[in-house]
Fold this sequence. Notes:
alpha+beta; about 250 residues; Alpha-Beta Plaits; Structural Genomics Hypothetical 15.5 Kd Protein In mrcA-pckA Intergenic Region, Chain A; 6 helices; Pseudouridine synthase; single chain; 9-stranded mixed beta sheet; 3 domains
Amino acid sequence: MLNEKQRIAKxxxxxxxxxxxxxxxxxxxxxxxxxxxxxxxxxxxxxxxDIIEVDNIKIPKIKKTKAWICHKPxxxxxxxxxxxxxxxxxxxxxxxxxxxxxxxxxxxxxxxLIIFTNDGELARLLELPKTGLLRIYKVRVFRRINDNDLKRxxxxxxxxxxxxxxxxxxxxxQTSSNTWLKIAIKExxxxxxxxxxxxxxxxxNRLIRLSYGPFQLGNINKGxxxxxxxxxxxxxxxxxxxxxxxx
Length: 247
């Protein structure tokens, strides 16, 4: 399992239970045992001889990293449990699907690419702002957009104390009453595109994520889940890690 000591939260994440951040929360909530003793700090190094339990259940052995692309339809939320009993994207998974976490969230009304993985550490890598992965969206708005509108959107406004950073925005097509925009962002702050356009009184009626870093939605149908071939996934992970070390 392990050739050297590694932080316990990282190992919990790599087992596919959750992300490293969530693993740290579990530890602080006293829900993790190491060798039958409750621990309260994530700053602990472990080896393959240690027994790790979450909620009194031994964590799974670390499996080969896998990832899948899901085409999330509108009307689904990006969580495993919802107190309001709304549909979740995990309901799209086949019954024999492995335990996975998501990479990148989308709000209930947003469609498009969501990545599933059985490796919480991979999820952390791809979500870190310093990794700098570009997210590209296609956005339909209820009006014609002119050059002044584009200039304002590109200005990267501060909305309710939050500074937003748009990498690019371009017009894809227009009719007399609607415009399709292509917008690229990197950090992926909560409801970032919706908040920016709302700030300029531009109403969105459709928002679709087309890509997340090197991973593309392509022609995947709504509600469909497609595994990323292992050789492609491994190649992209290496490239992403190499890029992130240069930032």
